[in-house]
Prior knowledge:
Elements: H1 4-8, H2 15-31, E1 36-39, H3 42-49, E2 61-65, E3 72-74
Antiparallel strand pairs: 1-2, 2-3
Amino acid sequence: MPTSRQQERVPAFSQQEYRERTARLRKQMAARGMDALLVMNENNMNYLTGYDGYSEYVPQLALVCQDDEDPWLILREMDTL
């Protein structure tokens, strides 16, 4: 059964929009010969993933790889619940 915190989560944007955003990024990465990209700016992380941790003071990042369907998120433990 989902916890109350899980029930509160509402996607920031549709799955289609998410796929389009990451596809555009990967196209730009390929044009520059990039296999991976580290995204550390919280606004850019939110744009790509919908994650909004309100924690500018804590290191966190998204790792976008050409070969992975979804970005990897490196977050605070409390945000993974």
